[in-house]
Amino acid sequence: MEKVTFENNTESKKTKMLTGVRRSLTWLAIGAATLVGGCREGGNTSQEDKLLQSELKNAFPKNEAKMNPHEKEEFKKTIIHFLEAHNTLEQAAELEQARITLEVSSDERETTTWKGGNEELSEARAQEIKTVYYELIDSLYQTQTFQALTNFFAKKINTKIAISPDHGRGVTSLSQLKNPLTNKPYTKDEIEQLPPAEVEALYETCRYVKILIELPAENEHTEQFTKLVQVLSDFPHTRILLDNSSSMDEENTIFAEKIAEALTANHSRFSSHDNRMVTFSNRIDWDNYTKVKDAKDVEAFMNETGTGDDDEHQLSATHEMLAKMEQEYESGKYSDKKREAGAIIMLSDEGISDFSVKSLTDLIEKAEKTNTTVFFALINNYSPDRLITMIDAKSLLMEAASFRKNENSVEFSMVYLDVNGNIIFN
Question: Which domains does the chain possess?
């Protein structure tokens, strides 16, 4: 498909779209804890694109967030096997450049165990996976099991696990699965005609845990926005908040191009969605609040977008957008229908400068009432490639609680990224 490019108003130039592939080492399968691919030798680049791709099935009992003991041990064995394969100075140096992301999904059947429903259940399971991983890493460091990885453990490089953009709402429905007979997503009628055992097998497919360890490629700065756009397809109502400071010119342009490409390539899927874009600094610029259904809408939005100041209020802008969505829903064409899932994606390269635990907690409570998931996509100023760390609001609150406990801190006023893309509170 032809690339969609927009002119950058500030610099009056078009951003070139880059292509390329990621480097890789190893594939591991968690279910059997076996090595599927080979470890790279002599520095040669494999055709695979991951260092580690692990998928864990049946990791949790239904409606619970504590791992099954057997699967927990298998998961730990897989991580240990992976580290064993990298216990050389050369491999360790490469591992230090890798990033770790986590994707957790539950099926769509409602749970009565968790107040926040299936989404909160998936988030609690993600936190459990993180805890098991962190405890294992600490144990290996204390026992000095892998000498070549001592520096990796000591500096805690990349031991923070970010939530993958593919995580979405943390819920997979049967209608998202592909019917092998038609090569299209299952319809409601097709699902109803299946035997109960086959339906249960499909629900099992919807429940999984995936961990990915990969090396950033030269084109990662561009391609990471493709992953970010994938979040849009999970939500019928999406609002995109773009930090319009001058340092964001390139990223906002690339993100807009990727959104336009997705709207063009998947027009039938997005035609019923309500996607809107707007910029913000200390407040939202409602003058350029634009509904985008195709590439022309996105181009019009970019043509009207100027550069704001550098006094960003990320959390306040997100609160403001959530209130706007509620107003639109109550007064618009959706007011007499069951509320569909919504999402807010806030993109900024300045962290969250107006952070407070209370404000974030209030945001989460309001978002739950409106069936909205809030994502913070933070661009790393310390990274030469300005890579993105994305985290949803509930996971950010969990990170804050963990950080406060470990650092004996009472309150924070800012969230930012360290050089490795880890979330830091100050």
Answer: 1-20+218-426 (3.40.50.410), 22-217 (3.30.1330)
